[in-house]
Each structure stands twice: as C-alpha cells, then as structure tokens.
Write a structure and sequence with these properties.
With about 450 residues, the chain is mainly α. The chain contains 26 helices and no strands.
Length: about 450
C-alpha cells in the first residue's frame, strides 16, 4: 500500500539497511512529486548516498538505490551510470528501462523492460512501459497492441488511462483522448502526464486560461516534464509575467543544462523582463506567427480533409490561410462539409481562408532567359493550343493555368491533387506536351 501521509519519513526510506523495492520507490515518488520540501529531503538523502558511494562503501544494491534516487530527482545521466553498477536485479532493470526512456534510448529501454520482466518484475508495469516507448518511437499502433494486452485492476489506474489517452490522441482520436485524460485525473489529481495532455488540448482549442491552470498543476510535480515547463513559460511570457517564465526555464536547466530551447527561452525572457518599453504589438505578432506555424495535424479533422490538405502540400495553418475557398473546393474529394470543418477550425484561432492568399508562394517560374526563342514561343502559347479534353480543361481553369509555360511549371502530383483530375487526364497532358518536346516539372 502506497503511503500518502505527510509523516512519511523519506530519508529513512532511502537509508541502506531498510527494505527497498517497488512499493518503497512508489512511496518516495508520491511523497516527492507534489512537495518541494520532500524533494529537498530526497536530494539530501541522495547526497548522503553519494558520499558513501565515493568512499566505495555502497554494495551493488546500494548503487541501485542511489541510481533510483537520481532518477526521481530527474538526474538521468548520473542515474544510468550508477544503476548499471548495481546488482542487475529486476528492480534495477526496470528503472534502467525508465532511465533509458527519459534519455530517448528507446531500443535499450525496450530491451531493459524485457529483461526486467524475465527477472520477475510486474508484467503489467513492464507492458505499460513498452507501450510508452513504442508511442515515442512514433509507433502508436504497436503501443495500442501492448495496452490491449492489459486487463483487470491496472485498467483503472491513472497511468494506464493516461497512456491509452495519449496513444489514441496520436492516432487522431482526440475526443476519446480527452475523456481518458479526465478519467486519469479523476483517479489521480496530480498525474502530470494527464494534466499535460488536457493542457495541450485546451491550448489547441484556443482556451489559454484553462491551459495555463492545467500546466500550473502539472508543474507542481517533481521532477516536472520539460514540455510542461516550456509551455507554461511561454504562456507566462504572453502574460508578461517574465519572472515566473524565468523560473520555469531555470527548472529545466537545473536538470538539463544542455537544453538549447530552455537556454534560448531563458535568455529572451530575461531580456524582456529588463525592458521598459511597450511590446504589446510585437508580442501579438510573435503569438500570431506561432499560431500560423501550428501544423494542421494538431487539429481534429476528418480523414477526407486531412488527405486533401496533404495532397495540396498544406502542412500548417499559415499554408491553409494562403489558399482561398475556391482553391480548396477545386481539390479532389474536397466538398462543402470539409470546407465548413476547416472554417470552424481556423475560426478558433482567429484566422480565415484566403487571409494570406496574396502572399502565397507561386510555382517557381521557368527561367525564360535560358531558353531558345522557339522554346520561349512554345511556353507563351495559350493552353487551348493543347486541345485538351473537357475534364482536363476544367482542371486548368481551377488552377488558373492560362499558358503552356504555366502548365509545365507544375508537377504531376500538383495536377493530380485537382478535383476530377486523374491518371487518364495526366497521361493525356503528357502526350500533348510530347508534341512540343517538353515535360511537366520534375519529369
């Protein structure tokens, strides 16, 4: 049974000679995660163990204890170096897997989970760990396979609900993910992963106030997820609360001094805190730029809409705003339902279709200067000279292609993305261009 009382003696739990297994580690983790004073006690206990280790007074089991202490403090480099010199038992192997995961050594993490399970560590916990690794290896389907193996009491735990939520989110099932995150928080109000997941979804829906509160709750855990502290710091900067932002970035740098993003954000926040001029307009512009750079894959869209945007080479909200409604409707399999879906998505961020249509990057023109006079004359001829079929002509009209030169500046993939334009029409155009001894771009 996990200890939840304030009277829990953390330092006593870390001392050599006392029982130290999964239950004791969980007691320490729970005591530390929401209490900075207990976090400090853990640090003191680890320092004491460090002294014993430096005097070569720690046995193999003691090094496992010290390595897990480093892990709970977020010092993963020292954790892996120390625990590898431990006894190689099930507990050591399990936490070696967790440390490998935090260091993004995913194949090694999978190997360690397998070894821990063979050594007798809890099968469900190892399976849950493998699911997390596969998801971070961008293999959510394999992650879900691992989760589907689990049944019974573990399915009601906050960690299981969170892992399933973040996995289905990766598979595009956002609403289901939110429900799972909420169940996870109901089971454990301090679960940092579930709080972070809900904060991300709130921010994506434009509810920055809710996101801020959720990030703040998640940040009370020790050690805190890097993503939580970065996002919280950015929101604090938006509110011009630079000192709070600096605290967030400094907490990252305390554990990860080589984190370039945190260092850069810290530098910018410190510079902003020292300035006395009004930067409202600049901050609005920067915030707007961040919104335009959001990938469309972050938003819940139908499969049809996602496929149409992919075929059109649209990957960010900025790309989307550079296209008009007419251009989207001209895309293959794109109809009014998809258009309404995208309008609503953009409205959440204060954007609209065609907002930056005049700034859209057009296909790179052919360098006329490098062509002969005869070739230039061919490219200047109207598209009607190709005598295309009705279907192909309609595609040319949708893409506003007026000359042969404008046609050959497009690739085959760009043409195939146009509504009602298929391989037959593409073959027709290629055959027509052969008569002029020219090809589409990239061919």
């Amino acid at each position: 049974m996990v200890v939840h009382t304030a009277e829990f003696d953390l330092k006593q739990a870390m001392l050599i000679g006392n029982s130290f297994g999964p239950r004791e580690v969980e007691n320490i983790r729970v005591a530390v995660r929401g209490d900075s004073a207990q976090f400090d006690r853990l640090r003191d206990a680890v320092i004491e163990l460090e002294g014993q280790n430096s005097r070569d007074e720690l046995a193999h089991a003691g090094r496992v204890r010290l390595g897990i202490g480093y892990y709970l403090l977020g010092d993963y480099e020292n954790a892996t170096q120390t625990i590898k010199r431990g006894d190689g038992g099930a507990l050591a192997l399990f936490y070696q897997a967790k440390i490998n995961f935090m260091l993004e050594s995913y194949p090694e993490a999978l190997k360690s989970y397998d070894q821990a399970q063979k050594a007798g560590y809890n099968v469900d916990e190892c399976t849950l760990g493998r699911a997390e690794v596969y998801r971070n290896m961008l293999q959510p389907e394999r992650s879900l396979e691992q989760l589907d193996k689990l049944s019974g009491a573990i399915e009601q735990t906050a960690e299981y609900l969170y892992q399933r939520g973040v996995t289905v989110a990766a598979l595009g099932q956002t609403d289901e993910a939110i429900r799972l995150y909420e169940r996870a928080v109901a089971a454990d109000k301090k679960h940092s992963g579930a709080l972070f997941g809900l904060a991300i979804e709130s921010e994506r829906r434009g509810n920055d106030e809710a996101a801020l509160e959720l990030y703040k709750q998640a940040a009370t855990n020790f050690p805190t997820n890097v993503g939580t502290l970065l996002n919280l710091g950015i929101l604090y900067e938006d509110l011009e609360q630079y000192q709070l932002a600096l605290i967030c970035y400094q907490r990252i740098l305390d554990s990860f001094p080589d984190n370039n993003r945190a260092r850069l954000f810290f530098k910018d926040a410190r510079a902003s805190s020292e300035m006395h001029i009004d930067e409202d307009a600049l901050k609005r512009r920067d915030r707007h730029a961040q919104i335009l750079n959001l990938p469309v894959s972050d938003f819940e869209l139908s499969v049809r809409s996602r496929n149409c945007l992919r075929l059109m080479g649209i990957s960010t909200l900025g790309d989307l705003c550079s296209h008009t409604e007419q251009e989207l409707l001209a895309s293959k399999n794109f109809g009014e339902n998809s258009l309404n879906e995208i309008r609503e998505m953009l409205a959440l961020k204060g954007l609209r279709l065609g907002q930056y249509a005049t700034e859209k990057q057009l296909p790179e023109p052919i360098q006329i200067e490098s062509l002969s006079l005869a070739e230039q004359q061919v490219l200047a001829r109207p598209i009607t000279d190709l005598d295309l079929s009705v279907r192909a002509k309609k595609c040319m009209n949708r893409l506003n292609i007026q000359t042969i030169g404008e046609l050959v500046s497009r690739s085959a993939d760009q043409l195939l993305g146009c509504k009602n334009f298929g391989v037959t029409s593409l073959t027709e155009i290629r055959e027509k261009l052969v008569n002029f001894n020219i090809k589409l771009r990239g061919e």
